[in-house]
Amino acid sequence: MSNDPDPITESLLVLTKYFHHNNTPYVIVGGVSVLVFGRTRMTLDIDIIVDHTKIDREDFITSLTENGFDINLLDLAGFDDHTHCSFFLKRGMFRIDMKGMYSQAEKESIEMAVETVFNNTEVRINHPINIILYKLLFGSEQDYEDALAVYVRMKDTIDHDHLKQKANQMDLGSQLSDFLENVNDLINS
């Protein structure tokens, strides 16, 4: 059996070390953020929002290439177009999807990030309120289950007034009300 870390852990170690060393604001979102809050599920990538203006692209590429990633300048062109960038950890072809801090919503996600330890790695993870609301916004069955798992685990620590206020700002007030009603029905059944 190999002593190599799993692709998520290996990727997080390299990426967060780079971001911390270079004072680059970031937040891990998507499936990995849900894993950190206790939901067991499969994910095939790491989704990251990063302050792309703080990345020295050549240095970033060199650092990641030296650590087993398949990445080049073209892979980061999405920063110029305000879209996402994808590259891979060669071992296992595990994908990293990054998008820049293009909007106020992305800036808020970075600012609200929760600092924690996941698989012995210090990471900045999306705040539970953001996870819940963005999962409701995306709306797939898995997204709903992710939101449910995070809410149930974090409901006693979530600022419900802030959750509702942000839901209303995102035009998700009715979806959140329905979601909370379903949660209460599940808990009370």
Brief description of this entry?
The chain is α+β, with helices and mostly antiparallel strands. The chain has nine helices and seven strands.
Description:
With 189 residues, this protein is α+β, with helices and mostly antiparallel strands. It has two domains: 1-126, 2-Layer Sandwich (Beta Polymerase, domain 2); 127-189. It has nine helices and seven strands. The strands form two sheets. The protein has a five-stranded mixed β-sheet with strand order 1-2-5-4-3, sandwiched between helices. Strand 6 (114-118) and strand 7 form a beta hairpin. The protein is globular, with a radius of gyration of 17 Å. The model has no long low-confidence stretch (mean pLDDT 93).
Question: What is the level-2 CATH architecture name of the largest domain?
Answer: 2-Layer Sandwich
Indicate the overall shape: globular
Mean pLDDT across all amino acids: 93
Number of helices: 9
The SS-based structural class is alpha+beta
Distance between the termini: 44 Å
* Helix-strand topology string: HEHEHEHEEHEEHHHH
Helix content: 40-55%
Low confidence ranges = none
Share of residues in strands:
15-25%
| Cα-atom radius of gyration | 17 Å
Q: Tally the beta strands.
A: 7
CATH class category name of the largest domain: Alpha Beta
